[in-house]
Amino acid sequence: MKSLQDLKFSILELAPVRDDKSIEFSLRHALELAQHAEKLGYERFWLAEHHNMDGIASSATAVLLGFIAAHTQNIRLGSGGIMLPNHAPLVVAEQFGTLATLYPNRFELGLGRAPGTDPLTMRALRRGRQETEDQFPQDVMEILQYFKAPQANQRIIATPGQNTHVPVWLLGSSLFSAQLAAKLGLPYAFASHFAPRMLGQAIQLYRDNFQASEYLDKPYVSMGIPSVVAKTDEEAQYLATSSYQRILNLIRGHSLKLKPPIESTEGLATSAEQMAIQNFYAMAQIGSQQTVKTGLEKIAAQYDVDEFIFTCDIYDTDKRLENFSLLMDIKNT
């Protein structure tokens, strides 16, 4: 069994928008967090693509990644993920091929199979295109080829993109991407930060069916974990009420802007909503360093993954930065 010191710690950033701040504030805070993560020694810093959500500012994922790359030195950057049904594979390859050309050996591309948005927004993103999730394997294969040396008589070549060999990950919250990642020999990241129900089954399926490839010789698994770490359990539970309110608003279709913490969440949600929040946040680690360390060690023992990638919806930006400092202290002690 791996110890926490053996695991890699990374960050998945959604550039949350606070209810009292501008979108520009969120984008600049994303950079501040990336710089903080780099100093602390986090392995990678990923941004997630979401659209038509007023509380998430990372919709133009490749553009924001370019901004962050220009103001950091060595931390690995990537997408967690690019929602492939929303894009032509060639465009994705050109975008990440450009980033990889400008910032060699720093970029990776995490690909998701779902659109990650509502049906109306999905139609706006795919205007004139009839993409479906069923095309995901074909699109992944196409992108992998764009990053390699062009084959003889290959008529469409990603420029930039060719010969950049950008590492590709598959992301998922079900069994489909686990099976495809195993078949292609790609690293796999499970979205347990919001949909942990099939985590164990997906990881086992991936490991059991993994085929060594030019990309990986053995399985590599990352799992998403929501985190709220503070000096005391009480403070962490208080700070986590911002996350609670955000998930409740997601369930209800309300604004996703981060709201300040509140003294109590009692009476805010129905019993059905409370159950949905608990299911959403089942892997969340909330508490003092000792509490969270115990929780992470339990997860590491149960799932034996290679990497934790942490999300955080703390309202106060200084407390949010502190969350990731405290997490890295847990890993290093």
Automatic annotation (TrEMBL):
GO terms for cellular component: cytosol. SUPFAM superfamilies: Bacterial luciferase-like. InterPro entries: Bact_Lucif_Oxidored, CmoO-like, Luciferase-like_dom, Luciferase-like_sf. Transmembrane segments: none annotated. Residues 21-247 form the Luciferase-like domain. It comes from the Bacteria. GO terms for molecular function: oxidoreductase activity, acting on paired donors, with incorporation or reduction of molecular oxygen. To bacterial alkanal monooxygenase alpha and beta chains. This is Luciferase-like monooxygenase. It comes from Acinetobacter venetianus (strain ATCC 31012 / DSM 23050 / BCRC 14357 / CCUG 45561 / CIP 110063 / KCTC 2702 / LMG 19082 / RAG-1). The lineage of its organism: Bacteria, Pseudomonadati, Pseudomonadota, Gammaproteobacteria, Moraxellales.
